[in-house]
Amino acid sequence: MTNNSDGFIVLISVVIISVLLMAVTFALSFSGFFSRFDILYAEYKEKSVSLAEACADTALLKIAQNPNYPSPSPNPVNEDISIGSDKCTIISVDTAGSQKTIKVKAIVQKSHTNLKIIANSSDLSVVSWEEMPKF
C-alpha cells in the first residue's frame, strides 16, 4: 500500500509543480506583451508633443510675420497645420495687454497634447509654455 500512495504523492506533486510553472510562464509572457503596448503609447505621446510644439512654433512664426494674426478672423482660429502626414491645430491666439496666449493641440492615435503658450507681443519671448489637460 505504501508504494501506491508514494506514487500518487509524486504524481500529484508533479501536476502541482507543472501548473505553477505554467502559471508563472503565462504571467511573464503577458507582462512582456503588455509592456510592448506601453512603449508604443509612450511613442505616440512623444510624437503628439512634438507635433503640438511644431504647431506652437508655427503660430509664433505667423505672429512674427503678421502681428495682427489671426485677423481678420475672430478667435478661435482652428487652423490645421500639416506636418508631413500628420496635422496639428492652432486653436486660438488671444491678445491680452502686452501678451499673446496661443493654444494648440495635436492628436496621434489616442494620445492628446494641448499646449498653452504665453508670449510677449513686442518681441515674442515666451513667458509660459505648458501642457494643459483640456481647453
Plain-language structure description:
This protein is α+β, with helices and mostly antiparallel strands and 135 residues long. The chain has one domain (2-132). It has one helix and five strands, in the order αβββββ. A five-stranded antiparallel beta sheet has the order 1-2-3-4-5. The longest helix has 64 residues, at 2-65.
Task: List strands and helices in order, with pairings.
Elements (H helix, E strand, L loop, with lengths): L1 H64 L13 E5 L2 E11 L2 E10 L2 E10 L5 E7 L3
Antiparallel strand pairs: 1-2, 2-3, 3-4, 4-5
In DSSP terms (H or I, runs of 4 or more residues), the helix count works out at 1
Uncertain stretches: none
User: Would you tell me the structural class of the helices and strands?
Assistant: alpha+beta
Span between termini: 78 Å
Determine the strand fraction and express it as a percent band. 25-35%
Order of helices and strands: HEEEEE
Helix residue percentage: 40-55%
Which outline best applies? rod-shaped
Q: Order of strands across the biggest sheet?
A: 1-2-3-4-5
Structure summary, number of beta strands: 5
Mean pLDDT equals 88
Q: Measured on Cα atoms, how large is the radius of gyration?
A: 28 Å
Number of domains: 1
Major β-sheet profile: 5 strands, antiparallel
Summarize the structure.
This protein is α+β, with helices and mostly antiparallel strands and 135 residues long. The protein is built from one helix and five strands.
